[in-house]
């Protein structure tokens, strides 16, 4: 069965340009997703305005209700709207009751070490009437025992979707297959669905996404042209082309990329596979190291390889 497709171009892509997207681009992306048959569009983060200065970021870092409604109105369409709430960086009071919002789903991002805080935020969003997912980041750094522990807790929670997230782009398809089976073993018993969010450090985001789908993932994240922090994400155009579902259309996505994202790259905004991201993916370390390496114009790839291999 076709999974629910979630476009997170604004949210993950916003990590590339500090969420400074033009209003025209956002409106065009909304229309593109409608025409393409995407199921969910994620507008960005619900970040705390006490922690982050609005002068330093575009509006989709904060996803105020009025800003979303300027694009979608009442969203009289089948496509649903989501935002991400980052544990420790979101004020629950900024999330309205579902009946007062155009947002349908709150996706809670957490590390395994902050699961208790994630559960509190999850309960709040559930009680307010939202669909919910929990996206557990950096699981490539967790032991199997830790994964079993948090899956047990999350599958006893009100979460609708439990996400397998390859934050560092470290996994190979066989690992995705094994982890999907593990996640589903917990989730299906409690009526939860599995989602997948892959990063492209080793040019495996697309392969890992379709592997999870083949294993039973009911939600799949993607971005136009793979736009996302560092090496980026699974490309929406590749995923839609692979699924070959009559409800999905690839052409609107290609037209959006041609109009907006190719000029953005030509203007110097940078994302996508590069050797430093390969090394952080292979080393299972945060891509921020590779981002800094690239931004500083470093050229010593072999030196970076030796440092990561030595655990430095």
TrEMBL record:
Protein's UniProt keywords contain Manganese: yes
Transmembrane segments: none
SUPFAM superfamilies per the UniProt record, alphabetical: Aldolase (SSF51569)
Keyword annotations of the record: Manganese
InterPro entries according to UniProt: 2-IPM_HCS-like, Aldolase_TIM, PYR_CT
Short name of any one Pfam family annotated for the protein: HMGL-like
GO biological process, any: L-leucine biosynthetic process
Highest taxon of the lineage: Bacteria
Coiled-coil blocks: none
Pyruvate carboxyltransferase domain ranges (all copies): 3-258
GO molecular function: 2-isopropylmalate synthase activity
Protein known as: Aldolase catalytic domain-containing protein
Lineage: Bacteria, Bacillati, Bacillota, Clostridia, Lachnospirales
